[in-house]
């Protein structure tokens, strides 16, 4: 049995998968805001609850914002700032009393979709999250490629390719640079574009709904978003040339985003054809937690019942 944990800013989700990827059970609890110790305890309680209910002990993988620094062994680049500078993997291994594998949430998303999701039949997969931020992960032959600096797939912190004059130098990014892909393709980027065009503030999801209803300004903003996405994906294809790209995150659910997207990407790809497959995530919001579980190979040991069973949530 594999257990996956998705450590989000507002909720912690746990899932138990059978060897074939079937969901055995899932639970979620609120994330203790700004409380590192409380977060460790919440994860421990979730794991114990799942194992008690299933009378099995599983491996544990964790999807977390940010990554572990190879230099210090501590968390870095997490927008859940309470995690930064903490030995999260080491502390989780201590409270769970077993080895723990921890990866960036975008990496886990990519691994999930490459393992048994939309791109399960493809060799080289680039999994993209379009949401509050813009992250991605690289999977080759169902093996996650984290990179020697643990930043493989961080395309969101590269400059927007082939910028138009009005896009230069671009918005400031929290990473300290300007004009990052993330500043244009995140939900905040779409909202900023709508504010620029109309003078009215609107959340990204509402811009998408307005576009679906035919509002001219919203359609204009969505068209500009799609064209920027096409340039960004084309730049990635020119470097990695993956078999498949999988789009996930809240903005990937905008149906109109896919209409004509391949044709726009092809305009910028350094090739006379575009054979890269483009998918919407099969597992949706569950891909992060499923990918965390897939960080471990199948556990085929004889199941044993935990010594202590807490009351289920």
**Please, what is the average pLDDT?**
92
- Estimate the global geometry from the Cα principal axes: globular
Low-pLDDT residue spans: none
How many structural domains in the coordinates?
A: 2
SSE blueprint:
Elements: E1 2-7, E2 11-17, E3 23-30, H1 36-54, E4 59-64, E5 67-68, E6 75-76, H2 88-96, E7 100-104, H3 105-116, E8 124-130, E9 134-140, E10 143-145, H4 181-185, H5 187-198, H6 204-212, H7 216-240, E11 244-248, H8 261-266, E12 277-280, H9 287-293
Helix pairs in contact: 1-2, 3-9, 5-7, 6-7
Description:
- There is one protein chain.
- This protein has 313 residues and is an alpha/beta fold.
- It has 2 domains: 2-104, ATPase, nucleotide binding domain (Nucleotidyltransferase, domain 5, 2-Layer Sandwich); 118-281, ATPase, nucleotide binding domain (Nucleotidyltransferase, domain 5, 2-Layer Sandwich), CATH 3.30.420.
- 33% of the residues lie in helices and 20% in strands.
- It contains 9 helices and 12 strands.
- The protein has helices spanning 36-54, 88-96, 105-116, 181-185, 187-198, 204-212, 216-240, 261-266, 287-293; strands at residues 2-7, 11-17, 23-30, 59-64, 67-68, 75-76, 100-104, 124-130, 134-140, 143-145, 244-248, 277-280.
- It has a 5-stranded mixed beta sheet.
- Helix 3 (105-116) crosses helix 9 (287-293), helix 5 crosses helix 7 and helix 6 packs across helix 7.
- The radius of gyration is 20 Å and the shape is globular.
